[in-house]
Specification:
Layout (H helix, E strand, L loop, with lengths): L14 E5 L4 H11 L3 E6 L19 H4 L5 E6 L4 H12 L3 E4 L3 H7 L3 H7 L4 E6 L14 H7 L2 H6 L12 H24 L4 E5 H13 L15 H4 L6 E2 L4 E4 L4 H10 L14 H6 L1 H11 L5 H8 L6 E3 L3 H4 L3 H5 L3 E6 L3 E6 L23 H7 L4 H10 L2 E2 L2 H4 L1
Parallel strand pairs: 1-2, 1-4, 2-3, 4-5, 5-6
Antiparallel strand pairs: 3-12, 7-8, 8-9, 10-11
Helix pairs in contact: 1-8, 8-9
Length: about 400
């Protein structure tokens, strides 16, 4: 891990208070931490549910949690107790950003709505991440990833290729909205730097995923007087999928006329280059099912290695169909240093995925291991001016939780 003293990330010097759980908010917080921010994760007494998701060694340190919470310090507080809430408010006084993933009704009940925290710190950027914008009639609804995939059209889009609506095989809405939240934080910080204005920022999952899903699929409805149906036709064909090669699977995506001619030549079917159905982009779009079905048949003429050798040097997009296990030994990922290993004090050697964006002058880095619940409770409370006697009393009453001694 990079020592904190060598932190050159673009967000160095900013403090983020992260009251989120599972994946959406924690992923956003981790990215901000990777970029140099001091991220303090505030956990309720029961801890983040993601601590139990996936394979794990020590209790509370499962794989999903490890992959979303590095570069953070964990403080565990019971916000339903006055001393716990007071500690959070003292922390807010020192923060640049507060990010939460609770429904608006819940934060009001706890006394940590925007109006409450703005009174404590007028310079605070307050970010709420939840299912639906509070401005609309769905604002009261609970939501997790599957609900948003369904509500935003994503499950139906998957269903175009199958016999019924289906969810994608990863928590798409959580992770995409997490990216949006991290982007929103950096934009709000930039605005504050330029104008001195702090603000409330709402990052709703539903609206985010409708925006993402319909970029290409709004199609004819893009025009106020609809010029056609929704749904990008190339993505609706059931033949858009990895193709069988002679010895496995291969992804091939010729796009322009030249690339299609190269594919036909490699497959030994130069005659198809003269078929009107394949000669122009417009013709291929009009016959997309048959075009892709033909490509699926041609793919069987060569092995995967032969396809890569024939197409890659000539600039035709192609790839092996990697499994997650394949990526662990992928030569490109190895050469660019994508996998970064570090020793966790309780979990031993860990494989971690580095921040994927490369900054020439202000690189992201991994500086802190993923914390146990409350691992830095005492440390952070000391920074806020609490003495050991007061901290001990809070721990005894359950207003604060410090599990460092039990975990390490």
């Amino acid at each position: 891990m990079t020592p904190e003293s060598e932190n050159r990330g673009p967000l160095k010097g900013y403090r983020i208070v992260d009251l989120t759980r599972i994946v959406l908010g924690p992923l956003a917080g981790q990215m901000l931490g990777d970029l140099g921010a001091d991220v303090i994760k505030v956990e309720e007494p029961s801890g983040d549910l993601a601590r139990a998701i996936g394979t794990g060694g020590t209790a509370g340190m499962a794989s999903c949690f490890l992959n979303c919470n590095r570069n953070k310090r964990s403080v565990s507080l019971d916000l339903k107790q006055k001393d716990g809430l007071d500690a959070l408010l003292k922390l807010i006084e020192t923060a640049d950003v507060f990010i939460h993933a609770l429904r608006p009704q819940a934060v009001r009940k706890l006394g940590i709505a925007y109006e409450d925290l703005k009174a404590v710190n007028p310079n605070l950027i307050y970010v709420g991440c939840y299912g639906f914008s509070e401005k609309g009639p769905y604002g009261h609804k609970a939501a997790f990833d599957d609900i948003i995939q369904s509500a935003s059209g994503g499950a139906a889009i998957q269903g175009w290729l199958l016999d019924q609506p289906r969810y994608v095989g990863f928590i798409q809405a959580d992770k995409t909205t997490g990216l949006m939240a991290a982007n929103a934080v950096t934009a709000a910080l930039l605005h504050r730097e330029r104008t001195g204005e702090a603000q409330f920022v709402e990052v709703p999952m539903f609206e985010t995923m409708v925006h993402i899903n319909l970029i290409e699929h709004l199609d004819g409805a893009t025009f106020a007087d609809a010029m056609g149906p929704t749904g990008y036709i190339r993505l609706r064909t059931p033949w858009r999928k990895p193709y069988p090669s002679k010895d496995g699977w291969v992804a091939i995506l010729p796009y322009d006329d030249r690339q299609w001619r190269i594919v036909f030549e490699a497959a030994g079917r130069q005659d198809l280059a003269e078929d009107p159905m394949f000669m122009t982009f417009a013709a291929r779009q009009a016959n997309v099912d048959k075009v892709y079905e033909t490509l699926s048949e041609l793919s069987k003429n060569l092995t995967t290695d032969e396809w890569i050798a024939a197409l890659d040097p000539k600039g035709v997009p192609c790839s092996r169909v990697n499994t997650p296990e394949d990526l662990l030994t992928d030569e490109h990922l190895a050469d660019v240093g994508f996998w970064e290993n570090y020793d966790h004090p309780t979990e031993g050697p860990l494989r971690s995925m580095k921040y994927p964006v490369n900054f020439e002058k202000s690189p992201a880095s991994i500086r802190r291991h993923t914390p146990h619940q409350g691992e830095q409770t005492r440390e952070v409370l000391h920074e806020l001016g609490y003495d050991d006697e007061t901290i001990d009393a809070m721990l005894a009453a359950g207003a604060a939780i410090d599990r460092k001694e039990k975990a390490i």
